[in-house]
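S.,

As promised, the uridine-5'-diphosphate run. Input:
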Amino acid sequence: MVNDDISWINTHLKDRAFEDQSVLVTGGAGFLGSWMCEVLVAQNAKVICLDNLASGREENITHLKNNENFSFLRHDISQPVVLDTKVDYILHMASRASPLEFEQFPIQIMKANTLGTWIALGIAKKNKARLLFTSTSEIYGESQIIPTPETYHGNVNTLGIRGCYDEAKRAGEATCMAYMRQHGVDVRIVRIFNTYGPRMRSDGYYGRVVPRFIMQALRNEPITIFGDGSQTRSFCYVTDQIEGLLRFLAKDDLKGEVINIGNPKELSIMDLAALIKKNIGSTSSLQYFPLPQDDPHRRCPIITKAHDLLNWKPKIELEKGLRKTIRYMTSELR
Ligand code: UDP
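Predicted complex:
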């Protein structure tokens, strides 16, 4: 199933911009990182996957390890690293991203996005490489403009539990712009909105809402709704997200640009729970818990910039993407 999706992405990315190019993917064993590595290897890029396996999983990349175009470096990007190969492109994707991890690992999250971005930019500067920093819709905080354009400057609580992620990503964006202005590095910043699909973690502290609800529904356990479930998100299937990121990285003349990539179809968490239950045929009840601090009430991107600059828009309907993810999570249950 993942194989079909990888081919699907490469069919939609018509030009082979990364063929024979050397690409460093930090966080390459994570959910999005491992998809990225796999698509790039399929394009005959030379992929260096760097990951400290703190939240990434080795099994996401095991099948790539005997490909001569793939190499794995177990390393924490917040620590200096010397690479022995030339790098043409860098995708700095390393970071824990689940709100459940924000209380547990705030220092590692800060380091990956501040020190880690600094180190990745140093590698970009030395190699004259192009760098894409994966920022987040979280930099908008509790947005007062919905849907949210890239021009919105955000409304973030620096002191709250999400501050470690939101502010570290904001600092990461500012560090990218500093390296562009002072050293001329070709940086691009993508603000990723909620993305889901196979290889997302559903266990323990890692669970984002989609894999958590799917696992709960598959086990007919209560579905855990935080708050009253009226808060909204908009969910992008992983293949759409990866296609958008690679279009952005590949295209010339976008130095210093920031682009939202996500799906603009907004729905409530309650509606998401109902959709997942329906597609699984689950008998799960709903169980209510307090809304975590600073959990944004609404989140939805404006994606006209991605459409205009990259000729990109998401193609996978939520229900279709959920069915693929459910199939994957069902296999994880065994
Ligand atoms: N959520 C929920 N139950 C859960 C996990 C998450 O109701 O078991 C809610 C959470 O409060 C938030 C939304 O689902 O409003 C999305 O949460 P997620 O952890 O995926 O990340 P976020 O979009 O908040 O960064």
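The chain has a mean pLDDT of 96. The radius of gyration is 19 Å.

- D.
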